[in-house]
Inverse folding.
């Protein structure tokens, strides 16, 4: 195993733990993006460029957009509920 | 040392499971599911790796050079894109649940039983 | 069950599961010691048999094209589920009198964001088309290129207003792209059945490895999957955007 592979594995382990431990879903989304990039580096070092391309595209474009929009919708619902309660 | 990738995959799986179990918010559970999925990618790629092998793209290396296994890469590649859409479906369900029950806490969602 | 009880139970069950998992993974061959047969066979004959230099894409769309058909339809179905859930939610929420007052806008976009997004749009589209079409030659293919293509109209949204994105990629076009891609991939397989007797058998001329039009049906299948993936992601993005951006009129709207 090369040094690069060990370093990438360590980054992935720390990143995965950070995703689970992050305090709120918004911060979790940002950590998830960084975790996706560390996974990309890992896949690249494992001689899998196709997989690395797929992972980087999904974790920077696909997932964060949908999660952030879902979070925004949930917050909007909450504010709408509060407004209706006041009335 | 050669067991390290599988050990890290097992660690990621357990950490992701802990994240799902201890989530107080449905969206946290969905993001921890992503970590569990990445553990399986790591196991698959670790199985297919061959020491000294190159990427299985023969555009500029001779065809007889040693390359890693391309079959597991196919599985992981399509899996990554598809799990993103499944996560989208789960997020849509979470938004719907919040609208119905007013909260994203899994404990509050058991109002169906009462 | 209270949260504490749940965590304690997970601690016990997780420890047991972890032990079994590690024992199971320890039974695998050591990392780097690859003993499989199928992978080495494909590596040896892939380029000469299918004239494709990117063997991962060749496996995806040619050797194991049937699996990709199933996976592509999983993608199609889950986006269908997203559309069904969110459209039904949108329909029952908005009262008709408020529809005129709705305005989709991305408030707070700074000038730097707009300028950067404008520059990125043609680059994203060109890169997406390049990755899709060169699937047989270099790392890439339908799945990766499709998501890059879906990022193009998203950058239009970031650069301007939501309605501009709807002009560039109206919902009907996205849905059509999704459906045509999915059907197109199945039709490529049927072409193999009709012209060569076996479902998904490569029936187009194979060409020279390294040229753009090589590997028979691979560019066609790659384009079909790229269309489908980009359509599916754009449909999902549009549904979430419609949900999140509707600004209702009324006291302190949005």
């Amino acid at each position: 195993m090369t040094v690069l592979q060990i370093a990438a594995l360590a980054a992935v382990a720390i990143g995965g733990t950070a995703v689970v431990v992050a305090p709120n879903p918004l911060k979790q989304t940002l950590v998830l993006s960084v975790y996706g990039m560390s996974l990309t580096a890992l896949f690249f070092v494992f001689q899998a460029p196709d997989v690395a391309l797929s992972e980087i595209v999904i974790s920077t474009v696909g997932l964060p957009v949908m999660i952030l929009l879902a979070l925004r919708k949930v917050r909007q619902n909450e504010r709408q509920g509060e407004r209706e309660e006041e009335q | 040392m050669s067991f390290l990738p599988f050990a890290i995959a097992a660690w990621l799986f357990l950490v992701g499971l802990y994240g799902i179990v201890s989530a107080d918010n449905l969206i946290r559970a969905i993001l921890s599911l992503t970590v569990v999925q990445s553990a399986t990618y790591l196991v698959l790629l670790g199985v297919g790796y061959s020491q000294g092998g190159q990427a299985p793209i023969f555009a500029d290396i001779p065809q007889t050079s040693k390359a890693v296994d391309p079959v597991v890469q196919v599985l992981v590649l399509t899996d990554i894109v598809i799990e993103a859409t499944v996560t989208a479906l789960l997020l849509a369900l979470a938004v719907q649940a919040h609208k119905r029950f007013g909260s994203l806490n899994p404990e509050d969602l058991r109002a169906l039983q009462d | 069950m209270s949260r504490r009880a749940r965590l304690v139970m997970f601690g016990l069950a997780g420890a047991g599961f972890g032990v079994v998992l590690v024992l199971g993974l320890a039974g695998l061959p050591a990392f780097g010691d690859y003993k499989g047969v199928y992978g080495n066979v494909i590596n040896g004959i892939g380029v000469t048999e299918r004239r494709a230099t990117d063997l991962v894409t060749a496996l995806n769309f040619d050797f194991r094209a049937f699996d990709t058909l199933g996976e592509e339809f999983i993608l199609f179905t889950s986006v269908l589920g997203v559309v069904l859930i969110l459209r039904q939610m949108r329909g029952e929420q908005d009262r008709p009198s408020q529809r005129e007052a709705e305005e989709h806008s991305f408030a707070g976009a700074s000038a730097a964001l707009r300028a950067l997004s404008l520059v990125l749009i043609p680059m994203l589209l060109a890169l997406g088309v390049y990755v899709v079409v060169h699937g047989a030659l270099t790392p890439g293919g339908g799945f990766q290129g499709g998501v890059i293509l879906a990022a193009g109209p998203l950058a239009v949204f970031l650069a301007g207003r939501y309605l501009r994105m709807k002009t560039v990629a109206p919902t009907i076009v996205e849905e059509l792209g999704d459906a045509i891609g999915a059907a197109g991939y199945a039709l490529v397989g049927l072409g193999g059945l009709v012209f060569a007797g076996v479902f998904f058998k490569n029936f187009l001329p194979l060409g020279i490895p390294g040229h753009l039009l090589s590997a028979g049906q691979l560019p066609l299948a790659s384009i079909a999957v790229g269309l489908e993936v980009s359509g599916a992601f754009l449909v999902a993005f549009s549904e979430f955007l419609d949900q999140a951006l509707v600004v209702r009129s009324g006291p302190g709207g949005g």
